[in-house]
Amino acid sequence: MSRFLSDRFSSLETYVPGEQPKDMEYVKLNTNESPFPPSPKVLERLNEQEIAKLNLYPQPEGAVLSEKLAQTYGVERENVFLANGSDEVLSFAFMAFCDSDTGAAFPDISYGFYPVFAQLYGIDYSEKPLCDDFTIDINDYFSQNRTIFIANPNAPTGLALTRDQIEKILQTNPDNIVVIDEAYVDFGGETAIPLIKRYPNLLVVQTYSKSRSMAGARLGYGIADAEIIEDLNKIKFSTNPYNINRLTMAAGEAALDDAEYYASNCREIIRVREYTAEKLRELGFELTDSKANFLFAKTSKMHGSELYKRLKEKGVLIRYLGKKRIEDYVRITIGTQEQMDILLCAIKEILGV
Ligand code: PMP
């Protein structure tokens, strides 16, 4: 840290992304990416013609992509906000909808970026403990004078709330924004998007990083009442109007023309998730009922940190978060059937079963 850094940031604890080691080829099951490449339609679209236009700025409003997303979700173009990954939508939401009067509230075990954004922007936040079985008690979120952030399905637990439960939270918070982070919704969750027409306090956040195989392109979006989108655009046009690069914008448009390709990948990931969960249970693991593209698991035979370490030595990367209350657990991204069989084989060797 230099002596020039503002005092505001001197004690900021940054978000720690999953490791991306380059020392060897790993079976990579640690950052919830899709094991499948983008659709061939995306690859076709990113041709020389598109690349040759990199001398030109992208369209700041992203009119074509917003319109296509609006059609996909049965909303209007003014209900769509585009960003550089859903992290940026979340960042802007913390900036736009929280301040010294309105703090933030989110579960104690959830996406690790929420407390980082809150600290970055100097926002007071309340972490609501998950129940012992890691479910969210919706009563904890009723009538809060805070902006609420809920990942649904939640990470790293994979557990999901129903749309009715989300609606109850919305009903009791008419004067606060409720942000529903649906990064993993396409793997078995229920989206809250249809509720935006009735709840002007709802912001749904989604991403191309998981079910649409574009983590490397950085594309996320928010769907909400037009006035909320206007607020987010105020922040965007005051920080970085060109937040989505030209190639990502084109890839995002093309991906929407191949919905069946992605739906079929999701079905396969769900199938492989259930298969892997069953095999892990047979090996004595305890797991949550994940509706995401990862499993959250523990075994009484070995501490989570040790399992992570031993698997890494065998070339299989999983995520160990090491946070209080979940020290025993590991998070395992669902890869291809072949990758999961390699994982299961390695686990059997490590546990000697
Ligand atoms: N929300 C949740 C719950 C996540 O796990 C992630 C991915 N780490 C994100 C948002 C951010 O994803 P991205 O910025 O790649 O869209």
List the helices and strands and how they pair.
Blueprint lengths: L26 E2 L11 H6 L2 H4 L11 H11 L6 E4 L1 H13 L5 E5 L5 H8 L4 E4 L17 E6 L11 H9 L6 E4 L20 E6 L12 E5 L1 H14 L6 H10 L3 H24 L3 E2 L6 E5 L5 H10 L2 E2 L12 E4 L3 H15 L2
Parallel strand pairs: 1-11, 3-4, 3-5, 5-6, 6-7
Antiparallel strand pairs: 2-8, 7-8, 9-10, 10-12
Helix pairs in contact: 3-8, 4-5, 4-7, 9-11
The protein binds 4'-deoxy-4'-aminopyridoxal-5'-phosphate (PMP).
Helix content: 25-40%
Characterize the quaternary organization of these chains: single chain
**Rg over CA atoms:** 20 Å
CATH class of the largest domain: Alpha Beta
Query: Element order, helices and strands?
Result: EHHHEHEHEEHEEEHHHEEHEEH
CATH fold topology of the largest domain: Aspartate Aminotransferase, domain 2
Instruction: Identify low-pLDDT runs.
Output: none
Cofactors and ligands: 4'-deoxy-4'-aminopyridoxal-5'-phosphate
Strand content: 5-15%
Distance between the termini: 48 Å
How many DSSP helices?
11
- Tell me about the largest β-sheet: 7 strands, mixed
What does this entry look like structurally?
The chain is α/β, with parallel strands linked by helices and 353 residues long. The radius of gyration is 20 Å and the shape is globular. The termini are far apart. The protein is built from 11 helices and 12 strands. Helix 6 (163-171) links the parallel strand 5 (146-151) and strand 6. The relative contact order is 0.17. The strands form 3 sheets. Strands 2-8-7-6-5-3-4 form a 7-stranded mixed beta sheet, sandwiched between helices. Strands 9-10-12 form a 3-stranded antiparallel beta sheet. The chain has a two-stranded parallel sheet with strand order 1-11. It is 35% helix and 14% strand. It folds into 2 domains: 7-37 and 260-351, Aspartate Aminotransferase, domain 1 (Alpha-Beta Complex); 40-258, Type I PLP-dependent aspartate aminotransferase-like (Major domain) (Aspartate Aminotransferase, domain 2, 3-Layer(aba) Sandwich). The model has no long low-confidence stretch (mean pLDDT 97). It binds 4'-deoxy-4'-aminopyridoxal-5'-phosphate. The site of 4'-deoxy-4'-aminopyridoxal-5'-phosphate has 12 residues, from helix 4.
